[in-house]
Amino acid sequence: MNDEQRPAQPFNYESATERISDPQRIAVLLRHLQEARSLLTVTIPDVQGYFISALLKVDAEQLSLFIDELTPPHGNEALRATGVVNVYALLKGVSVHFKTTLEASGEKDGVAFYRMAFPARMHHMQRREHYRVFVGHGKQVPVRIPLRDLGQSDVVEARLFDISMGGVGFMAPLKLRFGEGQVLEDCAIELPSGDTLRCALQVCYSRRDEMHNQLRVGARFANLDGQKERLVQRYVLLLEREELKRNSRI
């Protein structure tokens, strides 16, 4: 049985993750994040939602790092009040996660920045390829597909069941027919954040799912721009964070 024939399973974060406690290795990964200008997704204990930041500087000698102000802006007040954050990022498609605490805050040219403690440990994915994160049956994430690509004039609604930085899997009505390599233009994925990811999807496989009596389709993203990649990254990291919360304590 190949990967496409296996039923989708929740992503096992713990089994695929290395815990790093060596300060030198942590410093190297942090510098790579800084050099790559990787987007940081930040969560704050007891504060709903997630915030976006960037790594400005890594000071391994002083055991501290500097991050940019948070977006949306109310995250800045929450950070100063709570003083603890979880940080998630992708480095060349590989996930990185660490916890850190606030040491000091400052402002330059009207923009806030924060000096944070050097992480004592870091979770680092051991996989180098795109990994699929299971969405879960309790989450209804619609995938709207214009049927004009299939010779019709309506829009059909499918359901997302997994996602990665490379593509998606979705369940669709059995009446549809998709060919391998077919490009579905102007698809719309309604993300739980309220954002709509509009994209083209190239079909990799399509088969009947006997258990759910639906069509299981795997597709890769076609030509995502930077803004759309960030939407995908945020959602992948959100799902990963939920899985990590269930399976691991940091």
Describe the structure.
It is a single chain. The protein has helices spanning 23-35, 74-82, 226-247, and strands at residues 17-20, 39-43, 51-59, 64-68, 84-91, 94-108, 111-117, 122-125, 133-134, 142-146, 155-163, 167-172, 183-190, 196-209, 214-222. The chain is an alpha+beta fold and 250 residues long. It has two domains: 22-120, Electron Transport, Fmn-binding Protein, Chain A (Pnp Oxidase, Chain A), CATH 2.30.110.10; 133-245, Thrombin, subunit H (Beta Barrel). The strands form two sheets. Strands 2-3-4-7-6-5 form a six-stranded antiparallel barrel. The protein has a six-stranded antiparallel β-barrel with strand order 10-11-12-15-14-13. The longest helix has 22 residues, at 226-247. The chain is elongated and about 60 Å long.
CATH evolutionary superfamily of the largest domain: predicted glycosyltransferase like domains
Enumerate the strands of the largest sheet in spatial order, edge to edge or round the barrel: 2-3-4-7-6-5
- Number of separate strands: 15
- Give the number of domains: 2
Q: Main beta sheet, described?
A: 6 strands, antiparallel, barrel
Class of the largest domain in CATH?
Mainly Beta
User: Based on the structure given, which CATH architecture of the largest domain is correct?
Assistant: Beta Barrel
Radius of gyration from the alpha-carbon trace, in angstroms: 20 Å
General shape: elongated
Low-confidence stretches at least 5 residues in length (pLDDT < 50)?
A: 1-15
Termini separation (Å)?
35 Å
- Helix proportion: 10-25%
Structural class: alpha+beta
Question: Can you give the mean pLDDT?
Answer: 82
